[in-house]
Amino acid sequence: MPKAKVTHSSTAQSSTSVSRTPVRINSGGTPLWYKIIMFGLMLIGLAWLIVFYLASSHIPFMVDLGPWNYAIGFGFFLAGLLMTMGWK
User: Fold this and answer.
1) Residue 71, CB half-sphere, CA atoms under 13 Å: how many?
2) For an engineered disulfide with 76, which of 5, 45, 63, 80 has Cβ 3.0 to 4.6 Å away?
3) Which residues of the chain have pLDDT under 70?
4) 3 state SS for 17-43
5) CA-closest candidate to residue 62, choices 79, 75, 78, 48
6) Distance from C-alpha of 27 to C-alpha of 45, rounded to nearest angstrom
7) What angle (nearest 5°) sits at the alpha carbon of residue 47, between those of residues 68 and 40?
8) CA 25 to CA 28: how far, in whole Å?
9) What angle (nearest 5°) sits at the alpha carbon of residue 35, between those of residues 29 and 41?
10) What is the CA radius of gyration of the chain?
11) String of b and e for 70-82 (b: at least 16 CB within 10 Å)?
């Protein structure tokens, strides 16, 4: 199979004019407030489910919500879990 002909003048010009060193654009990572909200939502969801399981009969508004307590607890937890995709 024939080899391609490479001119040395074209490769010399491109290597001197352009820097090929990788540069990190966002080296700061995720801000602290993002992490606090993310973990806070997951903990609120977990706490909601635990309180509902242990003491729902003693808390009037939780009795009125009924099975919607599961949706609320898992909703908070899922919102925090979805935020982990933006964590760097």
Assistant:
1) 4
2) 45
3) 7-16, 24-27
4) HCCCCCCCCCCCCCCHHHHHHHHHHHH
5) 48
6) 31
7) 105
8) 9
9) 155
10) 28
11) eebbeebbeebee
